[in-house]
Records
---
Amino acid sequence: MINMRCEGLVDSLNEHCYHILGCGAIGSSAALQIARTGGEDFVLYDFDKVAIENIGVSQYDTNDIGSHKTTALKSKLLDLNPHINVTTVDQRVSTIMYMDQKDIIILGFDNMASRKEIVDNIMKNKYTNPYLLIDGRMGAEHYQQYSYVGRKELQSYNDSWYSDEDGDSEPCNKKATSYCSNMAGAFIVNTIRKVLTNSPHETELTFNFPLMSLTKNTYFPK
């Protein structure tokens, strides 16, 4: 069992389906770390292909250049665990493919407009209620993360949203470093673990590498 060394920290990751929207720096790192920790069901969304500039910041290598990111990431997930179930969506999407499990959504797009479109469409359908949505936003040496448990919390998403035009001073994952993307994946999996074990978790956090500073807002379950 590949996650035997973290057994007992969280044993329910395989009970959820992980929707990775954007399989670049944040998405590829989060997906592989979720799989290493016990996640077994994934839906990967990305219409882009692996290019040379992706190698330094994502979980791909030169053998993946020219392949769809979803195809390359699926292969890497199956290399980790051949029993993982992976669905790929190689086109632009505006909503998620809900499965029969508790859906956990990871937003790793490289633009803000796509994030808002997904969240708006989730909220328009009153029957959709994702278990958890995590929005990871990455700059060259700066990471931001916002987490929403359930539909009720997701109603406040616009409070943290800004347009691409207004976001020049905010993180943008078109400017990325490998250590920031790997840390992003770690923060995401840690948040999933905390939520699934009903532990205090960060609803908002930022990490700045030059200053090595972490700011956060923590929710303490009753």
---
Amino acid sequence: MSRLILASASPRRRELLSLLGIPFAVIAADVDETQEPGESAGALVRRLAVRKAEAVASRQPQDAVVLAADTVVVQDGVVLGKPEDDTAAQRTLAALSGRWHQVMTAVACRGPAGPQCVVVCSEVAFSALSGAEIAAYIASGEGRDKAGSYAIQGLGGALVRELRGSYSAVVGLPLLETRQLLRAQGLSSVLDAAA
């Protein structure tokens, strides 16, 4: 088994991590993602990423490096989770229309160098969306299992007017920070090997 383990079932995170050129195995973490009363978005995303990493690391050899991540979409201090149904997605997309929101992704790592966690916050602005555009996007089905009801790496990218921060973090795994965490755990990416 690979020394690096991605504690996520997300195909987007698998695709992003594979770009670093470090072999890894996938073991999905199963944790309760309910926001605690009074918990801020930053605290929530950090707690979930750490819990996912710990849940998988507890069943691995000491030298294993376990990487986990969690992403939340936040507007006006409110976490916009995955939509329960198309009506919830419509409400979320209407709220995002023509406005800025934040996307926070936490990456947690457990390994021989100890536990580490970093939170990356990006800002995304949607164009002003008509009711017909929102309905068409919802009908595509793309945003049904996504925080904030959209996927920037797919058709949802056509809703975005501007991005400030890390594109890969908005997708679900900030590559720069992930590479730094893995380097601290003694793992080298393709970029490190070329240096």
---
Amino acid sequence: MAWNYYDAGIGNVASYQASGHPWLSGSNALTSNQEIQITFPFVTKSITVAQSGSGVLRVHFAPTGSMVGVPNCYWQLDSDEDALTMNVKCGSLYLSAGSGTPGFQVMAELTRIETARMFALTGSGITE
């Protein structure tokens, strides 16, 4: 009798139904017009980003250079302790300072899916 072995994968529903393991990061302040990429060690199940400090923190899934001429392909957090929770699968996230020097905290719930298995996020609302 042959046994089938199933492992974590992008299309594997159980990978998203199981509780994820936590991942945390943060910074005191981004400088004006600074952009950073947060790369996760595994594909996310959900992400929470909280703004700390002053100014506007932008959350997006593509670098701003790829969004030239495309307005509003980001979510803005514009006050201290303003937060955004997203139930999304991705391998990375971009944060940028729209104005001022906002800080941030990122908490992600991770699956056991390797980020190399994640497809590139592009298209309407991401890069166009």
---
Amino acid sequence: MTKWLWFQLISFQVMWLSLILGGNTWLPVTLAILAMHFVFTPSRFEDSKVLILALGGFIIDLSMMQLGFFSFSVWPVWLLFLWAAFILNLGHSMRFLRKFKWIYLISFSALGGVYAYWASWKLGAVVFPQGSLVTLTIVAILWGIWLPMCVKLDVLMRQKSVSYTHLTLPTT
């Protein structure tokens, strides 16, 4: 694994833990790491393009909050940046997900999502007012759909644009 992939892997864990434990208070740690990401990434333009996917995850989490499945002690601005960090990893340290068959990717996504939200709940970052069984079942369904979509969209959005510099006009 290259140094860059190690940086990606470790930095995401640092961002996740700092945001889960410190929420908005520790947001500067994540902002500094995200800035470092864009300084050192070998794919700055492609990474910028996929950041829009973070809004989708953020909207899903806010919807879960509005529907009463998630509760936070303060407005979770940090969630948007956690989603940005997660989405950026899809094209780097989590690139291996592209090789999974759909059924395995869906299963992996559902289990991984449940584990992440369960750990967040246990660490006190989120409260499940409707109970953990109901909430984590919904999380499993949502993640089983959303993460495979993100993996596919990440691939499509990172594809190089058609270059017109090699095209020539026909001569008559």
